[in-house]
UniProtKB/TrEMBL annotation:
Identification of the protein by name: TILB protein
This protein's UniProt keywords: Leucine-rich repeat, Repeat
Species of the source: Upupa epops (Eurasian hoopoe)
Length: 221
């Protein structure tokens, strides 16, 4: 039996009235929105009973989520296959103004450049579909960044992190890992980096000027 076997008969439900706030949830789920048939069914049967949502009720719901006060959040494995999920997911990310540790593993993400996480120190976006450093969210305070198992082809754009306090970077199982002089290029672009792919900065990762020059010289014998 799997560890989750005892939960196989349980389902998700929407609890409308509760006292749990967003910053008290460490692993919330963005679920799939209702189908068109279900929406039509609801419209037909609840149109007369439905009360208009006031601005006060909308504001109370926003306060109930309280994403602005989240300091540590795991939004991994969301299975974002529906447009409703993607839009709601990005709406939550835009409100994470105080988050310091954020996990977004295996969400099929491709572009988060419109997202800004001003206090994020640790970001894990492993197993997504990023192809460039330019597609990552803005993280001016980042210290630990994990990008393993994406599709980053080149190191173009990595210098954008030069003025951040980035100390640890993981790029395992990305195509750029097979680039010639990969480690030297990364450390030359990020002088403050201390660890790459779990390996501390080594003397050979800092090639002296004369050795770097030899890579640009073609010797014909």
């Amino acid at each position: 039996k799997l560890p989750s076997d005892s939960f196989k008969y349980l389902g998700w439900c929407d609890i409308e009235e509760h006292d749990v706030r967003g910053n008290q949830l460490h692993c919330p789920r963005v679920r799939e929105g209702p189908s068109k048939e279900e929406l039509f069914f609801r419209e037909e049967h609840t149109l007369r009973k439905r009360k208009p949502v006031t601005d006060t009720e909308k504001w109370q719901k926003k306060l109930q989520e309280n994403w602005e006060n989240c300091a540590e959040l795991n939004l991994s494995f969301q299975d974002l296959g529906d447009l409703y999920q993607v839009e709601n997911f990005k709406r939550i990310l835009q409100r994470l103004i105080r988050v310091e540790k954020l996990w977004l593993v295996d969400n099929s993400l491709t572009d988060l450049r419109a997202i800004r996480l001003p206090r994020c120190r640790e970001l894990n976006v492993n197993k997504n579909h990023f192809t460039s450093f330019k597609q990552l969210p803005k993280v001016p305070q980042i210290q630990h960044l994990s990008l393993a198992e994406n599709n980053i082809m080149t190191l173009s754009g990595i210098s954008d992190f030069r003025h951040t306090p980035l100390e640890s970077l993981i790029l395992k199982r990305n195509p750029c890992e097979f680039q010639e002089r990969y480690r030297q290029l990364v450390f030359s672009s990020l002088p403050n980096l201390k660890m790459l792919d779990g390996i501390p900065k080594l003397p050979e990762d800092c090639s002296p000027p004369d050795i770097r020059f030899l890579f640009r010289v073609c010797t014909i014998l």
